[in-house]
Amino acid sequence: MRIIVCGAGEVGTHATEVLSAIGNALTLIDAAPARLRALSDEFDVRTLVGDCSFAHVLVEAGAEEADLLVAATSNDQVNLLTASIAKSLGTRKTIARVHQTEYFRQLGFDYQGRLGVDRLICPEYSTAIAIAQTLRNPAAIAIENFAGGSIEMEQFPVDEGRPTIGKTLAEIPMPAGSRLAVITREREAFVPDGGTRIESGDTVVLVGDAKVFNQARKLFHEGKGRRSVVLSGGPEMAVWLCETLRDRSFALRLFEPNRARAEELAAELPWVTVLAADPTDRSVFLEENIATADVFVALRNDDEDNIVACVLAKSRGVEQTIAVVQRSTYLDLLYDIGVDRAFSPRKVAARQIQAVMDDRHLRLLASFADGRIAVYRALVGPDSELVGRRLRTVRLTPDWSVIVIRRDGISWVPGADDELRPGDYAVMIGHERRDDALRELLDVRDDA
Question: pTM, whole model, 2 decimals?
Answer without folding.
Answer: 0.76
